[in-house]
Design brief:
The chain has about 230 residues and is mainly alpha-helical. It folds into 2 domains: about 45 residues, Arc Repressor Mutant, subunit A (Orthogonal Bundle), CATH 1.10.10; about 160 residues, Tetracycline Repressor, domain 2 (Orthogonal Bundle). Helix content is about 65%, strand content about 0%. Helix 1 crosses helix 2, helix 1 crosses helix 3 and helix 4 packs parallel to helix 7. The longest helix has about 35 residues. It is flat.
Length: about 230
């Protein structure tokens, strides 16, 4: 691909696609070069390093979150919409969960999200550091829920790359854990109420329930605007 068509935007979008399919461990300038049919050295005109490329790709996906109209909605509705869309974005790009703990993050995409989040919690009646705390509580809850799905994707990829049948390995793991659970009365009782394939899954609507519990708590802490 000629250098003049190899734009920074094309490189970042290709990096996001590669990360989605291969994870952080599969991202390299060589693999990206094969995807874009370009020499890896050409990327240095646009990105300085793999770390910088991860940062750019990470910031790009934050732009996928649709920002609610804070002026037109009550704060809880706006906060719920943001939390749901954040969860969908994180589970579309499970590598981002790992990147958040391994790479420095900065950029306009994340800043756009944070600015809107602060506007929501300020509208709720939180100010200064209290708005930061409210935003952080919700963010960490959503991130925690996304970790499970991110880990499942990473595990399946690792098993596949090792030549194993991921479904067979996971089924055996569930069977082994169910056998262990037979010695524990509460876990044994739960086995009788769920399918074996659902043993490790959280109950339906756990995410929504958690959000509402958090917002109920914040409701009691806020100082409503006059």
């Amino acid at each position: 691909m000629p250098r003049d068509t190899l734009t920074g935007e094309r490189i970042v979008r290709a990096a996001v696609e590669l990360l989605d399919t291969e994870g952080l461990e599969g991202l390299s300038l060589r693999n990206l070069g094969e995807r874009l049919e370009s020499a890896p050295t050409a990327f240095y005109w646009h990105v300085k390093s793999k770390d910088n490329l991860v940062m750019l790709a990470s910031d790009e996906v934050w732009n996928e979150i649709e920002l609610p109209d804070v002026d037109a909605l009550d704060w809880r509705t706006a906060a719920t919409l943001m939390a749901r869309d954040l969860f969908r974005m994180l589970t579309r790009h499970p590598w981002l969960v790992q990147a958040l703990s391994s790479y420095l993050m900065r950029g306009r995409g994340k800043a756009r999200y944070d600015d809107c989040s602060l506007a929501i919690y300020e509208k709720a009646g939180f100010a200064g550091v209290d708005a930061d705390r409210a935003m952080a509580v919700v963010f960490m809850f959503v991130l925690g829920n996304a970790i499970g799905e991110s880990a499942a994707v990473s595990l399946r990829r690792r098993l596949r790359q090792g030549g194993a049948n991921a479904d067979d390995v996971l089924r055996q793991a569930v069977a082994d854990q169910i056998e262990v659970a037979e010695d524990f009365p509460r876990l044994k009782a739960r086995i009788a109420t769920v399918a074996e394939t659902d043993y490790f899954d959280a109950p339906d609507q756990s995410f929504e329930l958690g959000l509402q519990v958090i917002f109920d708590g914040l409701e009691g802490q806020r100082s409503p605007s006059p």
